[in-house]
Amino acid sequence: xxxxxxxxxxxxxxxxxxxxxxxxxxxxxxxxxxxxxxAALVERKVLFFRDQRLDDxxxxxxxRRIGELTASHPVVGGVDAAHPEVYALDSTDNGFADVWHTxxxxxxxxxxxxxxxxxxxxxxxxxxxxxxxxxxxDSLSPAVKDLVDGLTAAHDGTREFGYYLAxxxxxxxxxxxxxxxxxxxxxEHPVIRVHPETGRKGIFVNxxxxxxxTGVSEFESRAILDxxxxxxxxxxxIVRHRWRAGDVAMWDNRSTxxxxxxxxGTDRRVMHRITLRGDVPVGPGRS
Length: 287
Description:
This protein is of the alpha+beta class. The chain has a single domain (9-276), classed as Double-stranded beta-helix. It has helices spanning 31-44, 56-66, 133-138, 142-148, 158-168, 218-232, and strands at residues 9-12, 19-22, 46-49, 87-90, 113-120, 128-132, 152-155, 175-176, 179-180, 187-190, 192-194, 201-203, 210-213, 238-241, 248-252, 256-260, 270-276. The chain has a seven-stranded mixed sheet with strand order 1-2-3-15-5-17-4, with helices on one face. The chain has a three-stranded antiparallel sheet with strand order 14-6-16. It is globular.
């Protein structure tokens, strides 16, 4: 018997990307619903689910039904021993994300996507913004596309996580892609990434982890990166989510960057994230 495709109830947040998904209980979703969610994730890039009742166990179960889970992070331990896949972003422990970034691009195989759950929210503030890297690429001028299509950039996690790995983990991180992380050597990825499922091109550099463009001068690298960052984060390429209790966000890490507003002072903000195992980024004309 052929399975009947599920039509999701989507509220578009922008004309090109970002949707609220109505009527799906992620803790009790059917296989058919999750197939539809997975397809919508690729198409709309970032999805939001209201009034969910997930805990850490439920979040991990959900992630395993959608894809293959990674460790919580290459170097940061899980929220507890029972949940090594869950990464806690706690503002009382420097758990901020107030720089534009794409998750874990400093590894050879960055995550396919992330699932983020609100645990403790400040009374106001702490919104998260997502930028559509494919829409941003599409709106570049042809001459700039020609320039950046063949470029490669280095991504380095040392600035953000090198101290943590050395001092708090004693030089031994988590297992990532079958190897225990003991150092954060820079990796190179194409500046423009071709999405493995749609073939669409997207800007794949970010201020959080990209250190420089390879094969050009430092001055040229900075100028090109500044141009791409400014273009990627234009308001027409962004959706913004105001969190409330019970919210879950899910995004395609291969076609987005994000930024969490740090505007809530000394109030506490705690978010729990899991990530789905991805593939090695490929650029235009590469295989």
